[in-house]
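Quick illustration for those who missed Monday's session on complexes.
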Amino acid sequence: MSNVPKVSAYEIASRNFERAADLIDLTPEWRTLVRTPFREMKVEVPLYRDDGSFTTFSGYRIQHNGARGPFKGGIRFSSLVDEQEVKALAETMTYKTALVDIPFGGGKGGVNVNPPDLTDRELEHVTRRYISRIHLILGPNRDVPAPDMGTNAQTMAWIVDQYGRQHGYNPAVVTGKPLELGGSPGREQATGRGVMLITLAAAKDHLGKAPADLRIAVQGFGNVGMNAALLLAERGATVVAISDHTGGYHRAEGIDLEGAVAHVRREGGDRTLRGYDGADAVSADDFMGVDCDVLVPAAIEAAIHSDNVDSVQARLVVEGANLPVTPRADAALNDRGVIVVPDILANAGGVIVSYFEWSQNFQQYRWSEADVNDRLERILLKAYRDVAEKQEALGSTMREAAFALAIGRVVTAEKLRGAL
Ligand code: GLU
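Prediction with glutamic acid bound:
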């Protein structure tokens, strides 16, 4: 497996764009205008470690397109972060917010730091240093970050505080905050909830299956994968396999998810599935090939690639992660009639509830969790139906239809503003 040529996030994003741009006959000028980021910022993030040693990280904030509203998108802390990855993820956010039709553009940030390597104090320091260097381009009506891989509500709390020191306290500058600091009920589960809603809708329409008939494999057991698995099981589906970067687990009768969550959260553990003994271990290479109806890649980019795509048994793939399927693997899945629900639809639940959080901050009024979940479902299923309609009209894949719709909306906004 290690000899598989690594396909970059940027290559995947480029292919997503070009395929849809061809379908809607976008001119070369418009392709350049839409694809080129509005602004890219790179900063140095120095840190004195607790042991006295000194190190530096690279931080990025890339504002891809703001034609439809303030730049919106998460901040990722991962040792794999680089400029090209952040750029691809920023562009993905532009189309995600356009597709679900919320009043935002797209952006993304990242620091090439591996959070498990740092203490909490060191992580707080890195977060504050990074924000103190990018704060000038942030703002509730300018650019609104959120959590992504390696960051969480605590990180957002440090950001709101650091931004507040320089601009005055304003919770609307970032979403995914703790409830106590203006976060929204339902935000933490929102991406997983969206994955669940989209999985059930697509399984009904394309596989003719009710929730209780579904066997699901979820790759990734972080915020997205864990919540998607729990909510799918709550609706009656059987989650037959789960995994994280430390290993995969399979149990045909269904994984005891409460047990897996307790394992991850246990005192003194490393917050991974490592050592989980409630199911049979599966190697990373074999995970994509487990027997199931639905496969949910909810971890990293390029997880399904040309070397493991032939083993995929699922008839439906739901992209919980951003950019998890390489172009060649995508073509192979399409050729075999496997339905792929693209990331900009499947995982949009998070940014939709980020929009609700931002709205609540401006209103200074908290909505109930039931209200949040209800509105999330309405917005997401409307986007799902819009994509189905577009797919029908274009005779395309779901991915091509979703990107065609989204790119079309960005172009319309640019034209209205008088961009070209
Ligand atoms: N990082 C998440 C994503 O990729 C959420 C972004 C947000 O809420 O702004 O969609």
